[in-house]
Amino acid sequence: MQHLAIHPRDADVSGDSLFWDSPPDDALARSLTEMGQMVPALAEIVDDRPRILAGRARVLALRRLPGRTLDARIIAWPGPGCGASPEVWRGLVYLASNMGHAVDEAMLVKAGRYFAAHIPVPEFLRLAGPYLGPALRAGSRRLTDWLSLPPAADELLFSGAVPLAGAQALAGMDGDDLAALRPWLTAARWSANTLARFVTPLREAARASGRTLGETAGEALAGVGTDQGLSPNDLIARLAAAAKRARYPVLTGLEERFAALARGVSRGTGFTLSPSRGFESDAVTLELRAADAATLHTAAADLARMATHPDWQALWSLARGHDPDGAAPCGHGGGHEA
């Protein structure tokens, strides 16, 4: 291992093993100006030219400072006996030089993409685990799932729109599928759960209809624009509702019809009305929260008044397929519960 003083412009900084490097910031340039280079860069000699293995930002910053040289420590691939190819060895050198740095989800994916181009993902996890530390131990399964997606998905993660755990909802998608959903996926910040509630029904609807995901999404989401001034939470809720409607049009129609009728029946009372699960029967459940006897007395009067409401029959007939709007049955009939 030797040290060389290199003119910064003579160093090759194009290696793809520098997968985390970003342009130098003003703080680094100021430190180099005032304190000098405290930590040498790592480099290997390729075709008589030093190729940077770690420290690219330092090289680029020094190029801005006239008359400065780069302190580089020269190392070389040990050969096949080290158990890693030159490409994998370069990646491991880079990881080792960055030990102690906080590693976020985007950094995990960038490292994973580099190594996955040269070795199977399980081998990457084994070799890189000691260098990636807690970040990998907490998310190795999520990272494995994400690396099975096309690289086109990565920008969704890097922008913060989709988390690493969202890989499960996106699993199996190709570039066309991701492109079809991108306008909506980039319009909000999704959690793994909200992403699943949005994407899964659309994918199921596409499979059931024999159409592409893009065609299904285009039709199902036509009425939900990203430019309608909705808050992120409202946008996510509307997109999830539209996706559910595409997958379960009959059930969604029944739910909407039930909600409208229930609001009329319970208006002005403390009661909440809900249907049987999946409208498997025509039963309606009434729920009331009471903290004192006065609330119960009021509720008794409300209940007597509600019992005469004309929309009860419509509520009970939804599950039997007698919806006045013509919705098909979703379950079977039964007794009336209150």
Report what the structure shows.
With 338 residues, the protein is an alpha+beta fold. It folds into three domains: 2-76, Conserved hypothetical protein from pyrococcus furiosus pfu- 392566-001, ParB domain; 150-247; 250-317, no CATH class. The protein is built from 15 helices and six strands. The strands form two sheets. A four-stranded mixed β-sheet has the order 1-4-2-3. The protein has a two-stranded antiparallel ribbon with strand order 5-6. Strand 5 and strand 6 (284-287) form a beta hairpin. Helix 4 packs across helix 5 (121-132) and helix 12 packs across helix 13. The radius of gyration is 30 Å and the shape is elongated. The termini are far apart. 31% of the residues are buried.
Summarize the structure.
Helix content is 49%, strand content 9%.
Layout of helices and strands:
Layout: E1 2-6, H1 26-35, E2 41-46, E3 49-54, H2 56-62, E4 70-74, H3 86-97, H4 105-116, H5 121-132, H6 134-147, H7 154-158, H8 167-170, H9 175-185, H10 192-209, H11 213-220, H12 232-247, H13 249-266, E5 272-275, E6 284-287, H14 293-306, H15 312-317
Parallel strand pairs: 2-4
Antiparallel strand pairs: 1-4, 2-3, 5-6
Helix pairs in contact: 4-5, 4-6, 5-6, 9-11, 10-11, 10-12, 12-13
